[in-house]
Amino acid sequence: VWETPLAEPDFEPIIIPWVEKKTYECTNDTIKFDSHSLLNQEGVTWAWEITPAPKYISATNVRNPKAVFENTGDYTVKLTVTKNGKEYSATVNDMFKIKQCPS
Predict the structure, then answer these.
(1) Which residues pair with 97 in a beta bridge?
(2) Strands ordered across the beta sheet of 17-19
(3) What pLDDT digit, counting tens, does each position of 31-86 carry?
(4) Which of 23, 38, 52, 82 could form a disulfide with 45 if both were Cys (CB 3.0 to 4.6 A apart)?
């Protein structure tokens, strides 16, 4: 794999929250999130907001939290990234859906 430093390391970030799948088959599934945002990652902080709130989340201030939910339905995700004291955010309505666990 070939790598090179960013030609312009200080550009306007593009915030991209990411989740593994669009639909989960059970509320007991562990859901993995990640920031696929386009920005220089040095000195960055993350803040995740998931609505409705999860039953458990590993942390809301890391790049790639894991969460477990207790309710079925659609979930909205907001990711706020802070870089050099400026906040950038993106909200994805109905980013993923959780179905009832099969019996």
Answers:
(1) 23, 74
(2) 17-19, 31-35, 66-68, 56-57
(3) 999 999 999 888 999 999 999 999 999 999 999 999 999 999 999 999 999 999 99
(4) 82
Do 70 and 30 contact (CB within 8 A), yes or no? Answer: no
Q: Are 10 and 39 in contact (CB under 8 A)?
A: no
| Side-chain half-sphere exposure of 8, counting CA atoms within 13 A | 5
Average pLDDT over residues 93-99: 97
What is the phi-psi region of residue 50: left when phi exceeds 0, alpha when psi lies from -120 to 50, beta otherwise?
Answer: beta
Between 60 and 4, name the one with better pLDDT: 60
